[in-house]
C-alpha cells in the first residue's frame, strides 16, 4: 500500500473513531431516534442524486436499511443516550465481527477455522471484561443495547455479503434512504412530537455540525474512501485498519469528553481487538472445500 493510501486508511479509521464522540455531543441536542433519522436523511440528500441508480436489487437495499439503519443505529443511539460511554461503545461494537462470523456460519454455511473460533472466544472474553468494568460504573442495560446493535450490524454484514454491491458508496447512500421514515415514526411514537419539535427549534451550529459530521464525513467520505481502498487493495490488506477505530474512539472520548479509561477497560480493549483481528483475518472453510483466506464480511462504518 503506497503512503497516500496508507494515510487515507488511517484517516478513515480516525474519522470513524471520532464519530462516537460526535454522536455523544449530538445526543445533547437531539433525542436518539430523531438524531439517527436526521443522520440518514442528511446522508441521503443530496448524495442520492449524484451516485447514480442502485446497483443491486431493492430487496437488499431495504433489508440492510432496516437491519443496519433502523435496528443497529437505533439501538446504538438509544444505548449511548441511556449512558453507554462513547469510547466504550466504539470498542464494544467491534464484537460485530464475531456476530458476523457466527451468522455467516449459520446462513451461508461458512465454517469458521480454529483460528477464527479462537478469535471469537478471545473477543467474547473482552466483552465480558468490558461488562464487568461497565457494571461497576455505568448502566448494564445501555451496555446490552450496544451489544444488540453489534449483533444487528453482524446480520447486516451477512446480508451485504449476499447482495455483493459493486460500489460501496452507491450502496450506502441508497441504504440511507430506507431508515429515515421508520426512525421518524419510532421517534414520534416513543420520544414524542413535542420533544422532537423542541430539538429542531433549538438547533444551533453545534447540533448542525454533528449532523454534518455523522452524515457526510463518516458516511459519504468514509465509505467513499474505504471503497476506493478496496478497489486498489485486497480486503485482507484494508480490513485490519478498522481495528484502529476503537483506538481513536477511546482516545477522542478521553480527550474531548473526559471519559476515564480504567486498566480493566484497557484489558478489555486488548482482548477484544486481538480477538477481532483473529476473527476477521483468520481463514474460513466453505462446505466441501479446504480453508481459504477470506476475511469475514464487514462494513466497518458508520460505526460507527
Index terms:
transmembrane helix; EamA_dom; globular; 304 residues; membrane; disordered C terminus; single chain; mainly alpha; EmrE-like; AA-Vitamin_Transporters
The secondary structure category is mainly alpha
Strand content: under 5%
- What gyration radius follows from the Cα positions, in whole Å? 18 Å
- How many distinct folded domains? 1
Through-space gap between termini: 24 Å
For the largest beta sheet, what order do the strands appear in spatially?
1-2-3
The ordered string of helix (H) and strand (E) elements is HHHHHEHHHHHHHHHEE
| Morphology | globular
Name the average pLDDT. Answer: 87
Strands, helices and their partners?
Layout: H1 3-26, H2 32-44, H3 58-81, H4 86-92, H5 96-107, E1 111-112, H6 114-137, H7 140-163, H8 168-175, H9 180-190, H10 193-201, H11 205-232, H12 235-238, H13 245-256, H14 263-281, E2 284-285, E3 291-292
Antiparallel strand pairs: 1-2, 2-3
Helix pairs in contact: 1-4, 1-11, 1-13, 2-3, 2-9, 2-11, 3-7, 4-13, 5-7, 6-14, 8-11
Describe the structure.
Helix content is 72%, strand content 2%. With 304 residues, it is mainly α. The chain has one domain. It has a three-stranded antiparallel β-sheet. A hairpin with a 5-residue loop joins strand 2 (284-285) and strand 3. It is globular, with a radius of gyration of 18 Å. 50% of the residues are buried.
Amino acid at each position: 500500500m503506497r503512503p497516500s493510501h496508507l494515510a487515507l486508511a488511517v484517516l478513515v479509521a480516525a474519522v470513524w473513531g471520532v464519530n462516537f464522540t460526535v454522536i455523544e455531543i449530538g445526543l445533547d441536542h437531539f433525542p436518539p431516534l430523531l438524531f439517527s433519522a436526521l443522520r440518514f436523511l442528511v446522508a441521503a440528500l443530496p448524495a442520492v442524486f449524484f451516485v447514480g441508480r442502485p446497483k443491486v436489487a431493492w430487496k437488499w437495499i431495504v433489508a440492510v436499511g432496516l437491519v443496519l439503519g433502523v435496528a443497529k443505529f437505533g439501538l446504538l443511539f438509544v444505548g449511548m443516550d441511556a449512558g453507554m460511554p462513547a469510547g466504550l461503545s466504539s470498542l464494544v461494537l467491534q464484537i460485530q465481527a464475531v456476530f458476523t462470523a457466527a451468522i455467516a456460519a449459520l446462513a451461508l454455511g461458512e465454517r469458521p477455522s480454529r483460528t477464527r473460533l479462537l478469535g471469537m472466544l478471545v473477543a467474547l472474553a473482552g466483552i465480558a471484561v468490558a461488562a464487568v468494568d461497565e457494571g461497576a460504573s455505568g448502566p448494564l442495560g445501555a451496555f446490552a443495547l450496544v451489544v444488540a446493535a453489534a449483533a444487528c450490524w453482524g446480520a447486516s454484514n451477512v446480508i451485504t455479503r449476499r447482495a455483493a454491491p459493486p460500489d460501496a458508496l452507491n450502496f450506502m447512500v441508497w441504504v440511507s434512504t430506507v431508515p429515515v421514515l421508520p426512525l421518524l415514526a419510532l421517534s414520534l411514537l416513543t420520544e414524542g412530537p413535542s420533544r422532537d419539535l423542541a430539538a429542531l427549534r433549538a438547533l444551533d451550529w453545534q447540533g448542525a455540525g454533528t449532523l454534518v459530521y455523522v452524515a457526510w464525513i463518516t458516511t459519504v467520505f468514509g465509505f467513499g474512501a474505504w471503497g476506493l481502498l478496496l478497489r486498489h487493495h485486497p480486503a485482507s490488506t484494508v480490513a485490519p485498519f478498522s481495528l484502529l477505530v476503537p483506538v481513536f474512539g477511546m482516545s477522542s472520548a478521553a480527550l474531548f469528553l473526559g471519559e476515564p479509561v480504567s486498566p480493566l477497560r484497557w484489558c478489555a480493549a486488548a482482548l477484544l481487538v486481538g480477538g477481532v483481528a483473529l476473527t476477521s483475518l483468520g481463514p474460513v472453510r466453505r462446505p466441501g472445500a479446504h480453508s481459504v483466506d477470506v476475511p469475514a464480511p464487514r462494513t466497518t462504518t458508520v460505526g460507527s
